């Protein structure tokens, strides 16, 4: 119907979420997935991988001149990450709020970082910080064939349709 199609574009927003190597080591993958599922977001892609230096260099290209950059790349390449694409209404902004401040010691209780981590250099999760950046990051980490277009049966319970 007309109303549905007017709601649909925003509902289809996507973001890249990645459990970083420390999060995987600490067995927090399930905990993190659970939070996004329970919020009502839809998982449309997921894989575990050892990130290459090439991908990490592009992913963090805006931080190349920061003093912590070499350590950041070593950290991100230190073990497997679990990369995911989540879809839903305002998911980029909402997931940044769910993730919390970059510096875990400043992250509010109730956020992923504020509940599960203590230090800025081991903050367990990545979330895209804008819709534009999310598009670039999803393209960097996923092939389009790895993203699944599917419908959830509870769509009308989560959204006005
Ligand atoms: P974000 O992950 O909250 O978007 P960004 O500023 O984009 O934060 O930085 C990317 C990542 O770089 C952070 O999540 C963290 O792992 C690392 N990082 C940022 N600032 C620092 C710092 O001052 N010291 C150590 N690592 C940092
Ligand atoms: Mg960032």
TrEMBL record:
SMART domains tied to this protein: NDK
Enzyme Commission identifier(s): 2.7.4.6
Topological category with respect to the lipid bilayer: Peripheral membrane protein
Gene Ontology cellular-component terms listed: mitochondrial intermembrane space; mitochondrial matrix
Catalysed reactions listed for this entry: a ribonucleoside 5'-diphosphate + ATP = a ribonucleoside 5'-triphosphate + ADP; a 2'-deoxyribonucleoside 5'-diphosphate + ATP = a 2'-deoxyribonucleoside 5'-triphosphate + ADP
Coiled coil regions, renumbered to chain: none
Cellular location(s): Mitochondrion intermembrane space; Mitochondrion matrix
One Gene Ontology term from the biological process aspect of the record: GTP biosynthetic process
Residues covered by the Nucleoside diphosphate kinase-like domain: 12-149
Top-rank lineage group of the source organism: Eukaryota
Cofactor(s) named in the record: Mg(2+)
Family: Belongs to the NDK family.
PANTHER family named in the record: NUCLEOSIDE DIPHOSPHATE KINASE (PTHR11349)
Protein name (Swiss-Prot/TrEMBL): Nucleoside diphosphate kinase
UniProt lineage: Eukaryota, Metazoa, Chordata, Craniata, Vertebrata
